[in-house]
């Protein structure tokens, strides 16, 4: 296969969500694996709804995920290309002027349905003579433009869905240009796919229904038809579709919630595939796991709880060097031994701050049995403390008090940390150190 050229083509009308990230990653990682090119194309022909700030936020979100596009294009800067293509289609008789108002179309649609006919556009405008058109335009009517479909069966081999076919005789001729001269999504998308030599159109399954029409337009423009891979969509855990407009599960909100980009990427790519959903820290490895042949055709459910679990699993393996700066920014960089001691207890990196405070203080000790703690103080091993200190100490306290298990450990944990749960004390105790430990055991906040 020659090197693929792919594109992720969001319309910048809101913040991208995890479902958009799925499509972006499928494209970017496929290109990365195959040594291809990843284009980020902003479908911003709708000048009213598209916003530069959303485009910029999308770039930021992709950068956070670790997928930098090789090229960024904006459809709003490419109207001349679309005008040119529309003109070519007009000249070849594939794009024709239509004058029906929405009300007229609706009326005809209802009449067809009432007669038990499929509600397909009847091509009445195609039959207009130049004189009829002139007359309508003299009345002030402006045309919208439809693409004249060939009434034939269009087939393609979808890389995800296998052989697909659509009988185009069952479709209305699609409107490509509105009455006010603006473009619907279809034509600019195809013109750009042609202009940028897109080899694989990898996108959400909501576009399967557009594909046959698009193939006809590719052909009408004399271009080679790309491969298509229609990826199943993500839904919320309760099965609802995700919406940019509603701000569903935006990447920004996931980032701000302290989730790791690799956790988000792992879930976005692996859910609804044949692979088990597991944390993959390395994007090259994640790229190797993409397999269009084995993506489920059913929508995949995105579960926030699953994302948190993935996040936790990633952090439990994360090396100190990878988090050092972030710990410092949180005021929680208490060294490599600290990270090794606490990471297994974290769901998010920010949670390390709590344990840094436990180590560095101040901690308000909780002491329920003063006499027991006094005995424990007597048994404290001499400094310096290391990983073996906790065991030696608790053995000694056990000998002195006859207590064991929870009755032995919990009061010591409460006195040293003020909490009834947390990382292994064997690792925490040397970090807390003799001075603070003694003060806390004495009942002082330290
Ligand atoms: N802007 C379209 C969308 O967001 C792009 C569809 C496509 O990839 O062709 O759905």
Describe the structure.
- A motif ('HIGH' region) lies at residues 10-20.
- GO terms for molecular function: ATP binding; glutamate-tRNA ligase activity; tRNA binding.
- It is a single chain.
- It is built from 18 helices and twelve strands.
- It is α/β, with parallel strands linked by helices and 446 residues long.
- Among the domains are: 320-360, no CATH class; 370-441, Arc Repressor Mutant, subunit A.
- The protein has a three-stranded parallel beta sheet. A three-stranded antiparallel beta sheet has the order 4-5-8. The chain has a two-stranded antiparallel sheet with strand order 6-7.
- β6 and β7 (162-167) form a beta hairpin.
- α1 crosses α9 and α17 (405-417) packs across α18 (425-441).
- The chain is elongated and about 110 Å long.
- Glutamic acid (GLU) binds at residues 9-11, 43, 185, 189, 203, 207.
- Number-wise, the strands total 12
Residue stretches low in confidence (pLDDT < 50, at least 5 long) are: none
Radius of gyration: 31 Å
* Average pLDDT over all residues: 96
Share of residues in helices: 40-55%
Under the CATH scheme, which architecture of the domain at 370-441 would be assigned?
A: Orthogonal Bundle
What characteristic shape results from the CA principal axes? Answer: elongated
Straight-line distance between termini: 65 Å
The number of helical segments is 18
Strand fraction: 5-15%
Bound molecules: glutamic acid
Element order, helices and strands?
EHEHEHEHHEEEEHEHEEHHHEHHHHHHHH
What fold name stands as the CATH topology of the domain at 370-441?
A: Arc Repressor Mutant, subunit A
What structural class should be given to the helix and strand makeup? alpha/beta
Strand order of the largest sheet: 1-2-3
Characterize the main sheet. 3 strands, parallel
- CATH level 1 name of the domain at 370-441: Mainly Alpha
């Amino acid at each position: 296969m020659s090197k693929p050229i792919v594109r992720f083509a969001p319309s910048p009308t809101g913040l991208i969500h995890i479902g958009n990230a799925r499509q972006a990653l499928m494209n970017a990682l496929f290109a990365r694996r195959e040594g291809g090119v990843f284009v980020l194309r902003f479908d911003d022909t709708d000048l009213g709804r598209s916003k530069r700030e959303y485009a910029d936020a999308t770039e930021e979100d992709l950068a956070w995920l670790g997928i930098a596009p090789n090229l960024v294009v904006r459809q709003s800067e490419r109207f001349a290309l679309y005008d040119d293509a529309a003109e070519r289609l007009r000249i070849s008789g594939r794009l024709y002027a239509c004058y029906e108002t929405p009300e007229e179309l609706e009326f005809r649609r209802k009449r067809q349905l009432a007669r038990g006919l499929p509600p397909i556009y009847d091509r009445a405008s195609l039959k207009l003579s130049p004189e009829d058109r002139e007359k309508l335009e003299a009345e002030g009517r402006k045309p919208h433009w439809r693409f004249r479909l060939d009434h034939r069966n269009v087939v393609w081999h979808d890389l995800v869905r296998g052989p697909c076919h659509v009988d185009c005789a069952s479709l209305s001729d699609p409107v490509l240009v509105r009455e006010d001269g603006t473009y619907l999504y279809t034509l600019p998308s195809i013109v750009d796919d042609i202009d940028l030599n897109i080899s694989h159109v990898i996108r959400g399954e909501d576009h399967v229904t557009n594909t046959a029409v698009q193939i006809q337009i590719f052909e009408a423009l004399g271009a080679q038809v790309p491969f298509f891979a229609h990826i199943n969509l993500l839904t919320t855990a309760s099965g609802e579709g995700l919406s940019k407009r509603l701000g569903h599960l935006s990447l920004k909100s996931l980032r701000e919630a302290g989730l790791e980009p690799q956790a988000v990427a792992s879930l976005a790519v692996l859910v609804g595939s044949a692979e088990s959903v597991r944390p993959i820290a390395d994007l090259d490895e994640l790229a190797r796991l993409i397999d269009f042949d084995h993506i489920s055709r059913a929508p995949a459910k995105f579960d926030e709880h699953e994302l948190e679990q993935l996040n936790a699993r990633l952090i439990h393996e994360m090396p100190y060097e990878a988090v050092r700066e972030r710990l410092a920014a949180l005021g929680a960089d208490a060294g490599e031994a600290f990270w090794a001691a606490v990471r297994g207890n974290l769901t998010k990196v920010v949670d390390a701050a709590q344990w840094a405070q436990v180590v560095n203080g101040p901690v308000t000790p909780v002491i329920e049995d003063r006499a027991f703690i006094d005995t424990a103080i007597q048994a404290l091993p001499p400094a310096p403390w290391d990983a073996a200190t906790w065991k030696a100490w608790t053995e000694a306290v056990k000998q002195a008090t006859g207590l064991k298990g929870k009755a032995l450990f919990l009061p010591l944990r409460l006195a040293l940390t003020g909490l009834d749960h947390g990382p292994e004390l064997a690792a925490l105790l040397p970090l807390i150190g003799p001075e603070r430990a003694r003060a806390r055991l004495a009942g002082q906040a330290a």
